[in-house]
């Protein structure tokens, strides 16, 4: 990059009105990023031009968990070291710039992060993929711990202007609700493919009002009313919902969904009309992927636009719509399948509701004509008992329905959505998830990346992860394996330093770093992990000479603010942490850390420093998992159940190189009816002792009530749920055995390194580049444009 220093000086004056030397680090970070943007923008415009007239794909997602952009962008532009040295000459330290950036945390977890990985892969592979979504003013809450309880505070990620996005005021559109119109203003962020041959766009919409200020009300001294319209409008994109328990919250979430979907479709239609005078080729030029059902209202909305605004007849419009949309399902939890109360639709977007009624009617007639009747027919109704089943709408209106791992897709086909599969088997397919190696190895673990490049003699793996397979030939090379162990140790030391600084806990990099990082949910079974830790603790108390490899158990998780049991589990683990870390008798043999405010940037440090990857969900519940792949890519064996993508990972890397335990889906089906966890409670050694800590006063204080609820959910169940629905008690023993096997295997350093190496060498399949290739070829039917 030419004259970077001059550009920065100029931007410093025009943006902050002072010289670069007078700016603080935050300001310097913004100046640096803006300078990089100056370099990107002309290439971005060219990239947009090369796609004109070509078929393009669009990712509709309510969430994108992007994390930080600066380093990722510089890496993809292949100029990170150049910039680092320019800055050094200017007396600016690059890593302190990096730390100034707020994470763009516009997502809850895997679903949002998948969107971010997909954007990176599509741009790298030169596929025209545009992301559409919402520019939340506040992302996922920041998590604090107070006496071990999770406290949520707003994530004000836009307190300083975001240098990576550009407001495109002139491309704003109008979105109509029954109670008034809202302005949707787009903000575009460049998505730079590795090597910057292609720069795609993430377009996020912000809601604003047409009337920013009511002068008359202000004049009448009604100050609140004078800005009411503005505030009401801006509320739509104010905050990302981690849950939607309350009525008002629910309505606002529906407004969010319709808002971004309508704006995005209007944007596509407007661009199409600028080139063509009819819609005959609309489906040949557009493929829209619905990231779960959150944007499924796009189906009736496009029908509305085509039939009521563009005056296309219904049948023709339906053919277009059902050729454009494809739907990805991300969950098997019945309670997570979205249903909307019809009353909300009727009052907020009645014109869309009428279209859904017509779609429902058309579908029911189609089924009747095929001979369906009674309950059989009722099963398929999109509107039923005053609710709209969004998954049904998405399935009926899409040409493709996919799950995100082989197991998940099979469960959809043969179980959960079997009726639908029988109706249209050709629509169902699998697209096993993936992750981008640019962020999850190249950026987060430069030490291992350099080593891989050195061994393979090329950087090709950065865009062709299958190349890692060639690392297999070093499996018996102790020099290589020792280098790997040294690198792992370096990453562990870096993490230990960071944890000391952030969490004020000292951990030993020689201990096993056993890590579970993911959203807090009962099905993910952080509780199983916690029980095993306590069991180990009690054993150490009984026998302080117990021969174990020292272990550091690390957790990172946010719980949805209204999910009481999940929050109870966080508090419980934090209590265990206090008990163990403050017990001098066990002399640091085990330590527990619960990192505060787990997010993408923390994740980058954690995945690369792990010895053990905890993927212990109840079989059949985790659709895929993607954290599991991030550990694998950093050479970390999985301690996991036969669930989601774990199955495929283990198939690639070998079961003997991982630690698989527990019930499988077929076992669960078999035992569910007669399962009584009290039997395990009474008979499995040590289990009663740990479960009783929930109620026996081991941990006292105001959490007692929460713990009682957890205890009861395990042993008694409730009137709406069987006891221990997630089989924590049933899998305890088998999990503990697997943990013991890890302890034993870890002692053989070279043997352990071999397991790690096999995982690394076989991670190729789990690149999101592979996933995107499959979406592009098998669903979207789009071509690469160089
Ligand atoms: C996740 N879903 C799945 N949902 O749990 C995971 O197995 C899968 O790998 C991943 O999608 C990507 O396919 C997920 O992250 C959410 O975050 C919900 C969004 C809406 C609010 C509730 C959480």
Describe it:
The chain is an alpha/beta fold and 786 residues long. It has 34 helices and 23 strands. The strands form five sheets. Strands 1, 4, 7, 8, 9, 10, 11, 12, 16 and 17 form a ten-stranded mixed sheet that branches. Strands 20-19-18-21-22-23 form a six-stranded parallel sheet, with helices on both faces. A hairpin with a 6-residue loop joins strand 9 and strand 10. Helix 3 crosses helix 20 (437-443), helix 6 packs across helix 34 (768-780) and helix 10 packs across helix 12. The two termini are 22 Å apart. The structure holds N-[(cyclohexylcarbonyl)carbamoyl]-beta-D-glucopyranosylamine (F58). N-[(cyclohexylcarbonyl)carbamoyl]-beta-D-glucopyranosylamine is lined by residues 108-111, 114, 330-331, 404, 433, 622-626, 644.
Any key phrases for this structure?
6-stranded parallel beta sheet; 786 residues; globular; alpha/beta; 10-stranded mixed beta sheet; 23 strands; 14% strand; binds N-[(cyclohexylcarbonyl)carbamoyl]-beta-D-glucopyranosylamine
């Amino acid at each position: 990059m030419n004259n970077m220093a001059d550009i920065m000086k100029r931007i410093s004056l025009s943006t902050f009105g002072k010289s670069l030397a007078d700016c603080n680090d935050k300001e310097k970070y913004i100046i640096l990023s803006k300078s990089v943007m100056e370099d990107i923008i002309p290439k971005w415009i060219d990239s947009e031009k090369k796609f004109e007239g070509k078929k393009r794909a669009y990712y509709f997602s309510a969430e994108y968990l992007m994390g930080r952009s600066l380093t990722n962008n510089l890496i993809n532009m292949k100029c990170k070291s150049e910039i680092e040295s320019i800055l050094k000459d200017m007396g600016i330290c690059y890593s302190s710039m990096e730390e100034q950036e707020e994470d763009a945390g516009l997502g809850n977890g895997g679903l949002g992060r998948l969107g971010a990985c997909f954007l990176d892969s599509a741009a790298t592979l030169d596929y025209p993929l545009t992301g559409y979504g919402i520019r939340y003013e506040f992302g996922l809450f920041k998590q604090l711990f107070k006496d071990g309880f999770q406290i949520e505070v707003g994530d004000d990620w836009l307190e300083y202007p975001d240098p990576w996005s550009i407001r495109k005021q002139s491309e704003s559109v109008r979105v109509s609700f029954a109670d008034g119109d809202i302005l949707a203003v787009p903000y575009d962020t460049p998505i730079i493919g590795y090597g910057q041959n292609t720069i795609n766009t993430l377009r996020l919409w912000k809601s604003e009002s047409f009337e920013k200020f009511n002068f008359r009300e202000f004049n009448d001294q009604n100050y609140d009313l004078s800005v009411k319209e503005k505030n009401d409008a801006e509320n739509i994109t104010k905050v990302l919902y981690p849950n939607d328990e309350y009525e008002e919250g629910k309505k606002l979430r529906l407004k969010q969904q319709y808002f971004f979907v309508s704006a995005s479709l209007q944007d596509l239609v407007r661009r199409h009309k600028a080139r063509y005078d009819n819609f005959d080729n609309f489906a040949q030029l557009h493929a829209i992927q619905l990231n779960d059902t959150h944007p499924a209202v796009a189906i009736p909305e496009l029908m509305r636009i085509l039939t009521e605004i563009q005056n296309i007849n219904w049948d023709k419009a339906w053919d277009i719509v059902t050729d454009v949309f494809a739907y990805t399902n991300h969950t098997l939890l019945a309670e997570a399948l979205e249903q909307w109360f019809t009353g909300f639709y009727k009052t907020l977007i009645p014109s869309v509701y009428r279209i859904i009624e017509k779609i429902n009617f058309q579908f029911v007639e189609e089924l009747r004509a095929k001979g369906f009747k009674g309950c059989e027919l009722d099963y398929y109704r999109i509107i039923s008992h005053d609710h709209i089943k969004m998954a049904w709408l998405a399935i009926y209106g899409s040409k493709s329905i996919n799950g995100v791992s082989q197991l998940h897709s099979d469960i959809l086909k043969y179980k959960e959505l079997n009726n639908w599969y029988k109706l249209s088997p050709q629509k169902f397919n699998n697209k096993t998830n993936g992750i981008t190696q640019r962020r999850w190895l190249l950026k987060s673990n430069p030490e291992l990346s350099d080593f891989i490049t050195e061994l393979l003699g090329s950087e090709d793996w950065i865009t062709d992860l299958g190349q890692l397979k060639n690392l297999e030939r070093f499996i018996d090379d102790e020099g290589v394996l020792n280098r790997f162990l040294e690198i792992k140790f370096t990453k562990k030391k870096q993490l230990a330093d960071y944890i000391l600084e952030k969490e004020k806990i000292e951990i030993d990099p020689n201990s096993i770093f056993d890590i579970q990082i993911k959203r807090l949910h009962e099905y993910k079974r952080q509780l199983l992990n916690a029980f095993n830790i306590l069991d180990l603790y009690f054993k150490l108390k009984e026998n302080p000479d117990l021969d174990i490899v020292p272990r550091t158990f690390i957790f990172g998780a946010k719980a949805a603010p209204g999910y009481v049991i999940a929050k109870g589990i966080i508090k419980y683990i934090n209590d265990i942490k206090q008990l163990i870390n403050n017990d001098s008798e066990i002399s640091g043999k085990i330590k527990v850390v619960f990192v505060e405010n787990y997010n993408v940037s923390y994740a980058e440090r954690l995945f690369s420093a792990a010895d053990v990857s905890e993927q212990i969900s109840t079989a059949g519940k985790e659709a895929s998992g993607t954290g599991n792949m991030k550990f694998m890519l950093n050479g970390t064996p999985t301690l996991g159940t036969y669930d989601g993508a774990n199955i495929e990972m283990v198939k690639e890397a070998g079961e003997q190189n991982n630690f698989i335990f527990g019930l499988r889906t077929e076992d669960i089906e078999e035992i569910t009816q007669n399962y009584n966890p009290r039997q395990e409670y009474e008979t499995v050694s040590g289990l009663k002792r740990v479960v009783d800590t929930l109620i026996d006063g081991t941990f006292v204080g105001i959490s007692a009530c929460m713990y009682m609820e957890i205890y009861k959910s395990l042993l008694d169940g409730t009137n709406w749920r069987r006891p221990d629905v997630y089989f924590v008690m049933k899998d305890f023993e088998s999990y503990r055995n697997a943990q013991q096997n890890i302890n034993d295997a870890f002692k053989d350093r070279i043997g352990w390194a071999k397991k790690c190496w096999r995982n690394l060498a076989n991670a190729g399949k789990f690149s999101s580049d592979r996933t995107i290739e499959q979406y592009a070829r098998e669903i979207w039917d789009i071509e690469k444009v160089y």
